[in-house]
Design a protein that fits this description.
Blueprint lengths: L1 H13 L8 H7 L8 H25 L1 H21 L3 H28 L6 H30 L3 H4 L2 H14 L13 H4 L2 H31 L4 H8 L1 H20 L2 H19 L7 H28 L6 H34 L1 H32 L3
Length: 389
């Protein structure tokens, strides 16, 4: 039951993928250029990246259930405010508040599931949690097209309010509060270790690169391929669907094989998917596009679960909140960096080479970054394996 509640809360947060397909309609409603919409992502993701770490650290002291509930409640309030925001700037304010809530949920959910599971099943437990996150990411764009087409972009906020309230009520009833196990504040030495920073750096790159899909793919599918919002949403869904399908498989593989080989394999597959997207043009078949989007998402899912397990295993039981918070800090700092860098690259190259080629170059840059990370990880793991004890 505990892991279901944690996965449900994280799923509500990841359901924010529902607004990605709404970006073109949102930009039109506020008369903003596509690159300006990146701030809808940045204000949210950058806020929850910081909140996740410190929320996890706080949970180690006061209890994970208490912090988790506050996060879900803040999420519901922010979604209601976003649904009625009259200006683009006020929408960004609502996104900051939403980031505060989302960070508290993400910072506590990994600790909730790992503390409720034996160490030998940590990968499976985290696989279940990441599957919940992936389901949220998948459902979002799947229903977003129909919502935007029928009810407008504001419905992508309002439809999530009752869901968040339901999870909050469920956590009140079924998630038992407990005192935190940690007796001290997190120190720099707890985090500034190779066992923590190395997998964090890989997560940073993988998530920075996948946001070439989350940020640019909706615009590519609508503006270059001429698809309507609903069809674009169906295609776009294949990336988070791949992540959701991969998560439990990757968790089982991490428990059986260890985290290192699945991590490298996932990064390589993600790089292949992004490279395929970079080669696509107006004549590329829908089947090839679908395969590329799925491969990028599946590769990320194969990578993320063992990566999180490696980070969680680097901390003791009394610091699982810090561990989960750091895991999401690395992910989301990567997302923010990817959004800023890839949006800037796309905007600059669009003026020089045109819309279609600018999309291709952004996807190619992301593919190269993940490929380099995969090679670096493989070399580092090989050295660790064959180095003398």
């Amino acid at each position: 039951m505990i892991r279901w509640i944690a996965a449900a809360g994280a799923g509500v947060v990841s359901l924010d993928s529902i607004i990605n397909v709404a970006f073109p309609a949102m930009a039109a409603a506020f008369a903003e250029p596509p690159e300006r919409v990146r701030w809808v992502i940045v204000c949210y993701v950058f806020t929850y990246s910081l909140t996740a770490f410190w929320g996890g650290a706080l949970a180690d002291r006061v209890g994970h259930a208490r912090v988790f509930r506050v996060g879900v409640a803040l999420t519901a309030i922010a979604l209601a405010c976003g649904a009625v925001a009259p200006t683009f700037n006020l929408l960004l304010v609502a996104r900051v508040v939403q980031g505060l809530g989302g960070g508290l949920v993400y910072g506590t959910a990994p600790g909730i599931v790992t503390l409720a599971s034996p160490p030998e099943q940590r990968g499976r437990a985290l696989g279940f949690l990441n599957a919940g996150i992936g389901v949220g990411f998948t459902i979002g764009p799947l229903v977003a097209g129909a919502l935007v087409a029928q009810l407008g972009w504001r419905s992508t906020f309002s439809v999530r309010v009752p869901i968040a309230l339901a999870v909050f009520a469920w956590s009140l009833v079924a998630l038992r509060p407990a005192r935190g196990a940690s007796t001290r504040l997190v120190a720099a030495r707890d985090v500034l270790r190779r066992a923590v920073l190395a997998p964090g750096a890989l997560s940073f790159v993988a998530n920075a690169s996948i946001f070439s899909v989350w940020l640019l793919a909706p615009f590519y599918l609508v503006l270059v391929r001429g698809l309507d919002a609903y069809t674009a949403g169906l295609l776009f869904t294949l990336t988070p669907f791949g992540t959701a399908i991969a998560a439990p498989l990757a968790g089982a593989a991490a428990d059986r094989l260890g985290p290192r080989r699945p991590m490298v394999a996932g990064l390589l597959l993600q790089a292949v998917g992004l490279f395929m997207l970079s080669r696509a043009d107006a004549t590329t078949s829908a089947a090839v596009l679908a395969g590329a989007l799925f491969a990028a998402g599946f590769g990320l899912g194969v990578f993320q679960v063992p990566n999180m397990a490696l980070i969680m295993g680097a901390f003791g039981g009394a610091q699982q909140g810090v561990a989960g918070g750091f895991a999401f800090l690395a992910r989301t700092l990567g997302v923010v960096t990817g959004v800023l860098v890839l949006a800037a690259l796309f905007a600059a190259r669009r003026e020089m080479v045109g819309l279609e080629q600018a999309f291709g170059e952004a996807f190619l840059a992301a593919a190269v970054a993940v490929g380099v990370a995969a090679v670096a990880a493989a070399v580092a793991f090989a050295r660790a394996l064959y180095s003398p004890a």
